[in-house]
Design brief:
The chain is α+β, with helices and mostly antiparallel strands. It contains five helices and 14 strands.
């Protein structure tokens, strides 16, 4: 993997647009490992739902699943979160201190019917009362080719309308936190498997349904410059250090 891929030109693009796509940057063995982890997470999650342990408004049986926190039990995911690329991204776009805030698989099953509406990743943090923390960096990993047919991401670039704050996000009928950004359409971002999209926590984005016969798998991790804590001093999600004083922290 190209550990120093954020050239000055790419950093300028990220600052101007609020996102950056790195096409086909992951080696195929890494993609295959993450696909296997996604499939394992799906089997694990459906077994949990079968036992009625993890049913919630965001997960629809046979539709789509958000499966967080598997790096706690799966060493290969923990390694991925601290590989050279992630360390490089954190140094350039988060700061000398960086923490894993959340990591999750986002799986759209074949012929699902539930889209994800316009939202900001920081909108979720804000909706739970922690919007005073700085926005996280999101790293979205395409584990399959992302196309208009299977629910590729659509973004509203900063160059079109920059949002430096968070409008109110409210749960829609599907349990997703969504907001009105005054735009009917953004830029649809198709990308091949093994690509990464880096996103500011403030960039609006959404995705449509998967109309294909195959599952659409993605892996999202977010990095914060400091732990996000509740009023008792407890982390509201993960707070696993990746960098301290610009030095990598081993898993």
């Amino acid at each position: 993997m190209a550990p120093n891929c954020l050239t000055p030109e790419r950093l300028a693009t990220f600052e101007r647009e609020g996102y950056l796509v790195l096409d086909s940057i992951l080696p195929q063995p890494v993609v295959e490992t993450l696909r296997a982890e996604a499939d394992h997470a799906l089997q694990w999650h459906e077994a949990e739902i079968e036992a009625q342990k993890t049913v919630d408004r965001l997960n629809y049986v046979g539709e789509h699943y958000f499966i967080p926190g598997r790096s706690r039990a799966r060493p290969k995911l923990a390694e991925y979160l601290r590989n050279e690329l992630m360390v490089h991204f954190c140094k350039e776009l988060v700061g000398p201190d960086a923490y894993v805030f959340i990591e999750l698989f986002i799986l759209k099953l074949p012929h699902n019917r539930v889209p994800f509406g316009w939202h900001q990743d920081h909108g979720y943090v804000d909706a739970y009362g922690y919007g005073h923390y700085p926005p996280n960096l999101s790293v979205w990993t395409a584990l399959d080719d992302m196309t208009p047919d299977n629910g590729a991401l659509e973004v509203l670039p900063f160059s079109r309308h920059r949002f430096d704050s968070v409008p109110p996000h409210k749960q829609d009928e599907h349990g997703n936190f969504v907001a009105d950004f005054g735009a009917a359409d953004g830029d649809l971002v198709s990308m091949p498997a093994g690509s990464l999209m880096l996103m500011s926590g403030l960039i609006p984005h959404r995705s449509g349904v998967n109309t294909t016969d195959a599952i659409r798998r993605a892996y999202l991790c977010q990095f914060s410059p400091q732990p996000v804590l509740d009023d008792r001093g407890q982390a509201i999600q993960m707070a696993a250090p990746v960098l301290r004083g610009a030095e990598p922290v081993p898993a």
